[in-house]
Amino acid sequence: MAENVAQELWEEEDTQKDKFLTFVLGNEFYGIEIRYVTEIVGMQPITEVPELPDYIRGIINLRGKIIPVMDVRLRFRKPFREYNDRTCIIVVDIGDISIGLIIDSVSEVLSIPGGDIVAPPEVSKGSGNKFIKGIGKVGGDVKLILDCDKLLNDEETENLSNL
Amino acid sequence: MFTISDRSTYEPMLDIFIFETVKQLEQLEQLVICTEKSNCYTENAINEIFRIMHTIKGSAAMMLFDNISMLAHTIEDLFYFLREEKPRDIDCAALSDLVLEGVDFIKVEVDKIKNGHKADGNAADLSKKIRSFLSILKEHGGSPASSDVNKQLQDVKQKYYISQDKTAAAAGKNAFRALLHFEEGCGMEHIRAYSVVHNLRNVSTELNYIPENVIASDESVEVIRKEGFTIYIKTDLTYGEINELLQHTVFLKELALTQMDDPEPVNEIPQKKHIMLEDDGVEAPKLQKEEATVSSGLQQSLISVNVNKLDRLMDLVGEMVIAEAMVTQNPDLKGLELHNFQKAARQLKKITSELQDMVMSVRMIPISATFHKMHRIVRDMCRKLNKEVQLELIGEETEVDKNIIEHISDPLMHLIRNSIDHGIEAAEDRKLKGKPQSGTITLTAQNAGSDVVITVRDDGKGLNREKILQRAKEHGLIHKPEEEMSDKEVYSLIFLPGFSTKDNISEFSGRGVGMDVVVKNIETVGGSVSVDSTAGAGATITMKIPLTLAIIDGMNIKVGSAMYTIPTIAIKESFRAEKKNIIIDPDGNEMIMVRGQCYPVLRLHERFRVKTDVTDIPKGIIVMVENREDYICMYADELVGEQQVVVKTLPSYIRNMRRIRGLAGCTLLGDGRISLILDIAGLVEK
Would you name the residues of B annotated as active-site residues? Predict the structure, then answer.
């Protein structure tokens, strides 16, 4: 009983619920739950690390902390684009893993209540779908909500084939 | 039950409980093992054990670990009795075993708790054992062995009185005197004697024997061997019946049974014995009281600190070193002549260095705790394998980083188990070879430069070159022709996975898993293991471990636009090669000749797929590195400089993805760039 009340109070105070950071990749808008995002930094020199999948570009030095960076374009099997001054790195913290996501440009923080998010359609072709947790409707636009766990962890099949 | 709101106070309490209980158990173990060596329980020891069990009982009860609490309570009761009643002639060995069993049970439970499992062990059997030991003690008001003697005393006193009359014939009709000799070499004569007595007890009304203290005293064995075992018995049985009964004794060599008409002798002897007993009584307690507790700890003022705080402190100091380098080696300052700044920078560097040293030493603890744990291992193994081994400790005050201590403990246990299992011969073999009956294992620890060197040396039979070569051949582990392999190389074969020359697998070794695990553990902390041996005289295993994981001396090299760091200890030499020294073998592999020896060449830009313009051998630099007697020559663009670097591990995300051979970690250079630290073992691997 006491637990339930505590839980509700916690949720009411959660100002991060239903808020998403949206960014642009090519022509699509993607959204990521804001509670995972720690910071956004501009492009930095990346130190390459050998023997990793191509979408892991390497590691960067973020004020003394060493963080791996992933190029989300390559992760979604889109064509690579040269980095320019609008390219950003979104640093996310999932579980105890910190990782930087290289994206074309950042858009804004939006509130998308649960009711406006629908499940993604089942598509047989393309690998991009497994990373999408849902489709959010904002005004007349559509934002693709990312599933962070899948983004980080869905390596099993790839690794095995690499070996 | 604990509610969520209590959880915040529960966790730290649990941590403290685990920490303190583990410490107390270690103390207790040491105490018991010391006591065993001197074969008597001093008053101080009893008090100490009582106190520890009392504390554990209380704290376990508070944390709701009832099984631990109850067991501690049972042992506490036992030692309360020992403390108050001070019985003589306690069976020390049995008592030690019981206490150690209790310690083991609690250790296992605490381990379960540490790992987040439930402490669901059942100590009912052990408690029963302890309680029955205690009740035996209580019944006789002394030890089980001497209790009978006490009874005899009282019986005898009475009988003496009665026999004065010579009328009362309450005693048995017949009196006999039996002298038994046991076969030579049958062993445990005193136990056999006791069992004879035990068998006669049912049929006799009065029973006395010399030597008297058969169970508790080892000297009685000698007496029985030399003079035989004498029994005075009053019984209703006939001569023939007694004779037959005694003839059933195992290993009986000679029996001289005489019927006595005069019951007097039976009673006289006890009198003498009585006096002897009293003497013993006076001596024994004195001896025990005199035992000084050598381990009266130096009262240092100590404080226990959460290890997380220390880790954080280390990290911060590491970052400060990097930040300091970033300031003093800033590219903005290149070429500028700033005298005052340089002076201040030097001062800053000095202070930073000292701070670093200080923080590092905070995490250092003397290795004695780990060494002392080995006593228990030695004791248990000696018992199980019936060998005699002494453990010698040298240099236990040497201080080692806390992280490293955790990684050495298991390998050490393993090495000692190996030594006792494989190396030290059985007592008879040693006597035949002219070695002292008791084997010696020497553990030493000393500081050597920036490393700690720990050796495990035994005076057993050493490593057998032939056996090792043979076993290696069977497993297909030999790459060079046998004659070319030096002794050291042959001995190093034992470190390969799956290797074991033990024919039968024992509980402790023979599965061929051990040495490999030792090497892996040591290499995880950046150390190295080597072995040396002299056939017949023993083997020595040497572990070299860097004083700290976090900071190493490194040489920075450049390949294209990427920077790498090589640990300086691995570098043998570096030079600019000439084209004529390069040979290409039929497979296309590059080799280089250096002073008559041929080494493979590893082009780093190819290995790590880095773009660089420097691909011509004479244009770049060759660095010869070594790992466990394997050499390779690495080809890089140029050497940048030597530097003390703070090692940072690669992000866990990357490490979980795949283990990149050849990279041990990374570090931040003065200008903020990341340099990857090379793992020489991984690069040298074929």
Answer: 54, 76, 418
